[in-house]
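Mods, move this if it's the wrong board.
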Amino acid sequence: MNRKRIDAEAIDPSVIPYRTLNTGARIPAIRLGTFGSDHESAETVAEAIKDAIYLGYRHIDCASVYRNEHLIGRALEEVMSVGVKREELWITSKVWNDMHGRGDVLISLVQTLKDLKLEYLDLYLVHWPFPNYHAPGVSIDSRDPNAKPYIHENYMKTWRQMEDVLKEGLVRHIGTANMTIPKLKLLLRDCTIKPSCNEMELHPHFQQPELFSFVTENGIFPIGYSPLGSPNRPERDRTSTDSIDMEDPVIISIAKKMNFHPASICLKWAVQRGQIPIPFSVNKKNLLSNLKSVTGYPLSGEDMRLISGIDRNCRLIKGQVFLWPGAYSWEDLWDIDGG
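Not the wrong board. Structure tokens:
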């Protein structure tokens, strides 16, 4: 530990809240995202990972589709070479949509482990429940001509592969992402190993109370992406009806009262509600501020009540690029009708 780079402003990782999964494992309650939203380079993201870990972050969110795992691997190798132990870190990654076929999950995982320079992942997720693919940086009108709706039999073939890599010890936990209650019900009915986590969009203007309750009642831990309302999301994920969480009068009022940035209020709400937020930043000041948000003074019960009342059911990541021929709208991806 004598060579470990310590930042003067670093947060002691031991004071970061932890949550307990259905396996009994403890998971850090804030996760750093690594998706640069098509505007941050892989090199910039990798440098931010090093800064974040030196500041006290211990939970990193990766994905093969982000195209930066090879550089993140070098960053992880560097921080572990100066004293950060592998067992201190919780590293998550995801299998992308074009690797759902027979034998593909293992192939994708082996590449991720090679890129990240790791022997195992703490958590491996199925990124989307569809094999539908889009090229990097596409517009909102882009479509995969071979896209298909959710086919449960096919998804279970992918999930069986997830169960296999868990049994082989290549990952410690497996989970889902971008699922709905109908899809999760089918998975829970048919799986041998149920998911430990479900990653889903969660922020004050999109609280998903029914899905949130369903996963928690079934022992699946909710992990929330876009916790700040994803202000830097790609253009393909923007529509004229989107609302802005950090400009909500309730969020602003609480922020002024507590002398915090509105982003801090969104993160405090997320952790106190019982989900793991995934903020993204490459700015060292913001990295530290986000971490302090979940270790400092909490929101009051009244503040939590007020924020629960500003849900606008405003989904920001609609997934239009994953629609299949004949689909009516993005709502078809999310089982809006309960089907």
